[in-house]
Write a structure and sequence with these properties.
With 349 residues, the chain is of the alpha/beta class. It has helices at 30-42, 55-61, 64-80, 108-114, 127-144, 180-190, 207-213, 262-279, 305-316, 332-347; strands spanning 2-5, 16-19, 22-25, 47-48, 155-159, 196-200, 219-226, 251-256, 283-288, 322-326. The strands form 2 sheets. Strands 4-1-5-10-9-6-7-8 form an 8-stranded parallel β-sheet, sandwiched between helices. Strands 2-3 form a two-stranded antiparallel sheet. Helix 2 packs across helix 6 (180-190). It starts with a strand and ends with a helix. The structure holds N-[3-({4-[(3-aminopropyl)amino]butyl}amino)propyl]acetamide and zinc ion. The site of N-[3-({4-[(3-aminopropyl)amino]butyl}amino)propyl]acetamide has 15 residues, from loops.
């Protein structure tokens, strides 16, 4: 399988995040992508660098004012006060119900709150560089697939970070800044695929991807994840969210209780796959979160390494041209094996 590696991923390396009111080391680290890279390489997979510029497609999934903010956020933060280049900015105020989000404040922290869903997505000097290169990888992957009558690849894997699936039309969140899965899906549409399915298997609901496509029938969003009643992102991902307007019936959430067995997870995967097959799309985008792993430090499902092979096999049986984008997964040393297992399961190796 063709694999794109985001060579700029290390530019996004914030030091800490907040957890229970304390500063803790980031869970989403550069080492994650390096572990996946080394497993891919040692299994003989050849890594390529993305070639496509994603700006046009980015502007179709994200709001212009959000993209402008994110691109210049670090510069604006550093310009604010001497020493800020050694400090991480965090939002501390948000435009929740009754407050206005149509007027962008001048104050930097207020702008950061406007464009954030949480205080858990730390910015660093190279966040834009890394996230943009990740979006370029997603667009590059979409351009290589055999869709719309074009000759091409059966599947492409994007080994990249930061993740993307919590990033909505105009906000960052959950370690995500640019929604790579949405970029891949939109690029596939623009490249001639009439209908695209997105399957999100990360432990956390892909609220950003759901929101970007919620009122559209041309992109089906299906997600299995920890029940938002107890799990991040808490405010989206319930079973009664089925799509709106033309998109009614084109969103399927399969929330599962934290702590549930792998058997139950695979039952939900089967339901997801049946819905995707019935949709009869031209291509599939997989938001490949590996935080469903039993040993993940922040998640509560129980998949083992061999279960990732089984996941890959099941997705391969859908028979669709497929883009995989890496999302979460925080048991860093196991990420390589688990990612390669999905890919090789898909390929029937
Ligand atoms: C892409 C992705 O997987 N984003 C996940 C963002 C989760 N952010 C909230 C982290 C909450 C950590 N809870 C830790 C519980 C440990 N006992
Ligand atoms: Zn996750």
């Amino acid at each position: 399988m063709i694999t794109f590696f985001n060579d700029s991923h290390q530019a996004h390396a914030p030091e800490f995040e907040f957890f229970r009111g304390e500063r803790v080391s980031c869970f989403e680290t550069p080492a994650r992508a390096e572990y996946v890279k080394s497993s891919l390489t040692s299994r003989g997979h050849v890594l390529r660098s993305p070639q496509m510029e994603s700006r046009t497609v980015l502007a179709r999934v994200h709001a212009p004012r959000y993209l402008a903010f994110l691109e210049h956020a670090w510069r604006d933060w550093v310009a604010l006060e001497a020493g800020n280049d050694q400090r991480q900015p965090f939002p501390s105020v948000w435009p929740v119900r009754t407050l206005r989000s149509d007027v962008e404040p001048v104050n930097f922290i207020a702008r950061l709150g406007l464009y954030s869903m949480d205080n858990g997505s730390p910015l660093a000097a190279g966040t834009w560089t890394a996230a943009k290169a990740g979006a370029d990888a997603a667009a590059s992957a979409a351009a290589l697939l055999a869709v719309g009558g074009r000759r091409g690849e059966r599947a492409v894997f994007c080994c990249s970070r930061p993740p993307g699936h919590h990033a909505g039309p105009d906000f960052m969140g959950g370690y995500s800044f640019l929604n790579n899965a949405a970029v891949a899906a939109q690029a596939l549409r623009d490249g001639g695929a009439a209908r695209v399915a997105v399957l999100d298997v990360d432990y956390h609901h892909g609220n950003g991807t759901q929101s970007i496509f919620y009122d559209r029938a041309d992109v089906l969003f299906v997600s299995l994840h920890g029940d938002p009643l107890t799990e991040y992102p808490f405010y989206l991902g319930h079973a009664d969210e089925t799509g709106a307007g033309e998109g009614a019936g084109f969103n399927l959430n399969l929330p599962l209780p934290a702590g549930c067995t792998a058997a139950r997870w695979f039952d939900a995967l089967e339901q997801a796959c049946l819905r995707i097959a019935a949709f009869r799309g031209d291509a599939l985008v997989v938001s490949l979160g590996l935080d469903t792993f039993a040993e993940d430090p922040i998640s509560k499902f129980s998949l083992q390494a061999s279960d990732f092979s089984r996941l890959g096999e099941r997705l391969g049986r859908l028979g669709l041209p497929t883009v995989f984008v890496l999302e979460g997964g925080y048991a860093a040393t196991a990420l390589g094996t688990n990612a390669v297992n999905v890919i090789e399961g898909f390929e029937g190796i």
